[in-house]
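Sorry to interrupt, but I need a hand with the structure work. Could you add the entry underneath, on a fresh line?
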Amino acid sequence: MIIKGEDLTVEEVVNVAVRGEKVKLSNTAIEKINNSRRYVEKIIEKGEIVYGVTTGFGKFCNVVISPEDTKKLQRNLIRSHAAGVGEHFPEEVVRAMMLLRINALAKGYSGVRLSTLETIIKMLNENIVPLVPSQGSLGASGDLVPLAHMVLVMMGEGEALYKGEVLPGKVALERAGIEPVVFEAKEGLALINGTQAMTALACLSISGAINLSKAADISGAMTFEALNGIIDAFDEKVQRVRPHRGQRAAAENMRKLLDKSKFISRQGHYKVQDAYALRCIPQVHGAVKDALNHVKNVVEIEINSATDNPLIFPEEGKIISGGNFHGEPVAINMDYLAIAVSELSNIAERRIERLVNPSLNEGLPAFLTRNGGLNSGLMISQYTAAALVSENKTLSFPASVDSIPSSANQEDHVSMGTIAAKKAWKIVENTLNVLAIELLCAAQAIDFRFEEGGCFKDLGKGTKRAYELIRDVVPKIEEDRVLSEDIKKLAHLIKSGELVKRVEEAVGTLE
């Protein structure tokens, strides 16, 4: 993948972070990086006072640093800011952080040497993954703490995962044949002053959430069939008079998935209206789709931005201190993502309840087991879904409305964007498992419909393929068994993208 600093996409971030695609800089990026560095060196030669280049940091911005202490200043910055605690970020998050920092520096506004940037590129391509604690960032001045832990390994310090082994940073670099970096003026600050921890989480979360949005349409369509839902609610005429893009897309998805189904009903055949969890799928899933589209747009602007401070404009001959490190755009949108994905789990859990509850499930056996009492069937799967949904509700409380001043009140408003992003990441994981439970219950319910006289060929074009995939992974539940393994297998079917991919082969692209 060619890194230009300009047009990186969420999908490309996932390809590098998860699938291990290699990267290199474009020639244009190399030229910009070199121009920016030459300007920094001119400033140093002139002895000008520039924040983070010839001064201390934060509240120490008025302390002038002598030229002979320049290297020590940058080294001390990284060591002092590596104050993180808690569990380490997963490997894919750290790889995404590395890629995003490379992309930001490739824009040529940060003043690092080309050789410094090439070191982090080599680390990424060799899959040297620094161990980065997940707690400690305020989301302004960027993700200082997690990025400092990432950068420690570039210096030959800290720890890293390399070829399945946790090693001291120096040893990991040696084994990969990479020389540690001795940072020059501005470089340490340029490497840690940005939003790359929160945006790494954001990229992976929004990618997962978009996949979940489509998977929720599939699981919702299966439940709709199992409960003989009334298809009229998804009519294009209904959507046309309230033309939100997401609502229309969700309704179209449902019509595609349920096309040719003989299990669905029409208005007035058996009942006049369905409950909201069925009838309002386009409205709820559609609102989520609109939110995800907005969040993805914001994230892609952010990952192609210069979030350093100060910023260097060599063509204009200026170095300007600003606030591009502030994570507020990401923070607010990660809170928005958290709320949106929580709603997918909320409505899915209500559909699960309708499947297992004999008072609501249109004549299906209680808890979807034939010999109830001796068997509990899928009773407790709904408990798990309810627990996950409840956890999502607590995680959906916004982080971006909080701020605690730091650096002796020099940094008096912060975004808490990384906390927002971590919560959104967790909600995506929880919702994945709720949808896996819905698939498990919906397939079981459909099996009982088959016993009533329906058959596999009576399913919709999309739900038929989904049912087939589910039964390839987990068999029908004839009597009680451990359900956690079934849920795990179905969660993998969703997370891998296989469910959506294979269903789309049958019905066309889902939005």
About this structure: The chain is about 55% helix and 5% strand. The beta strands are 2-3, 24-25, 85-88, 129-130, 133-135, 159-162, 165-168, 311-313, 318-320. Residues 68 and 412 are 32 Å apart (CA to CA).
